[in-house]
Design goal:
Structural class: alpha/beta
Largest sheet: 8 strands, parallel, barrel
CATH class: Alpha Beta
Strand content: 15-25%
Strand order of the largest sheet: 1-2-3-4-5-6-7-8
Order of helices and strands: EHEHEHEHEEHEEHH
Length: about 210
């Protein structure tokens, strides 16, 4: 299981601090959440404005919890090392169009789904996605309570689609990560458990174990 440290912030200075922290703990990838108060309540940094023409030394996942991820993704064209972009099945943009545009840019398209959404909505898009990002909290901010029931839905989905990569995102720490075992989860996104820890490197290494 890949462990990916996550950033959700509305402060450009905090973004810089956390990117350096994540690099210093030995991670090679970062997961950046983007909110614009449309699909999900809350607002973050735009991301592309702070990172354009910079090489931060990390691979980047960009997770658009926004209503129009196609337009949002187009603004990231000048950001280096973006290798995955995630659009939600609940957004207003057709996921098929989002996926096509990502592949034109040689970026992996992933589809996100909220814990309360019927997983059957994913079915028409499974051949067009690199993987599914399953939220294991109610979306909007870091530090929210992990939802064990989401893992039951993930396991059911994995049993039906064993070859699809699955990323679990939200509320994952050294206690709750056990819920993700044996469910088919291949990637775990961890925010507060790492970046708000008194010893981020130690917490990251514990999660890797």
């Amino acid at each position: 299981m890949e462990i990916i440290p996550a950033i959700l912030t509305d402060d450009p200075v905090e973004l810089d601090r956390l990117l350096l922290l994540i690099k210093n703990i030995g991670a090679t990838r970062v997961h950046i959440d983007i909110l614009d108060n449309t699909l999900v309540a809350g607002r973050t940094i735009s991301g592309w404005e702070q990172l354009e023409n910079k090489n931060i030394g990390l691979d980047i996942d960009v997770h658009f919890m926004t209503s129009h991820p196609i337009g949002d993704a187009s603004r990231w064209a000048g950001v280096q090392n973006v290798s995955r972009m995630i659009a939600h099945i609940e957004s207003d943009d057709p996921f098929s169009e989002f996926a096509d545009k990502m592949r034109e840019r040689q970026i992996e398209p992933w589809v996100g789904i909220n814990p309360g959404t019927d997983s059957a909505r994913l079915d028409p898009h499974l051949e067009n996605t690199h993987g599914v990002v399953w939220l294991t909290v109610q979306p909007g901010k870091q530090g929210q309570q992990f939802l064990p029931d989401a893992c039951n839905k993930i396991k059911e989905f994995h049993n039906a689609h064993p070859n699809i990569q699955i990323m679990a995102d939200g509320g994952i720490n050294k206690e709750t990560i056990s819920h993700c075992r044996n469910t088919g989860v291949t990637h775990a996104v961890c925010g507060s458990a790492i970046i708000k820890s008194q010893n981020p490197k130690e917490s990251y290494l514990e999660l890797l174990k």
